[in-house]
Amino acid sequence: MTQDSYDPENIFARILRGDIPCDKIYEDEYALAFHDVNPQAPTHALVIPKGQYISAQDFSAAASDAEIAGLIRAVGHVARELGLADPGFRILANHGTDAGQEVPHFHIHIFGGGPLGPMLLTD
Ligand code: 5GP
Q: Ligand 1, from 7, 11, 19, 36: best to mutate by most atoms within 8 Å of Cβ?
């Protein structure tokens, strides 16, 4: 996944517009959080900015300070709301082809709900 311009028909854009449903956890003016449809851990949430940003690079370069702070604060809020702050959790964002980013709207994964194993699976 490498592209230059934002695709307003990507699945997370459609969720933000309310065109398709999500299992919502949290929402504020900067971010929307919902459960991943194909969880990779007992708890697997996604936190996305409301602005149209393709990836981590795009977001870090083009988002305002308020949007960046808002997204990170939303991640913390969601982790607390899901009861993950004490036992612990992992956050991850895939950027581009080598990372296997599938959805071209920047998103942060939150994994938790049990021991998560090594940071990266290696053979
Ligand atoms: P990526 O590989 O781009 O970092 O992660 C995309 C994530 O979005 C995947 O974990 C995938 O399961 C999730 N996903 C894809 N389509 C949908 C959807 O329609 N609804 C929800 N809730 N999650 C989705």
A: 36
The residue type found at 87 is P
11 close to ligand 1 (CB < 6 Angstrom)? yes
- What's the pLDDT score for residue 99? 95
Q: What is the pLDDT of residue 120?
A: 84
Q: What is the mean pLDDT of each run of 10 residues along the chain (123 residues)?
A: 83 98 98 98 98 97 98 98 97 96 98 94 66
Residue among 19, 20, 102 to mutate when testing ligand 1 (max atoms within 8 A of CB): 102
Return the pLDDT at 3: 65
Cα 103 to chain centroid, rounded: 10
In the chain, what are the domains? 24-112 (3.30.428.10)
**What is the DSSP annotation of 37-66?**
SS-SSSEEEEEEESS---SHHHHHHHS-HH
Confirm or reject: Cβ of 102 under 6 Å from ligand 1: yes
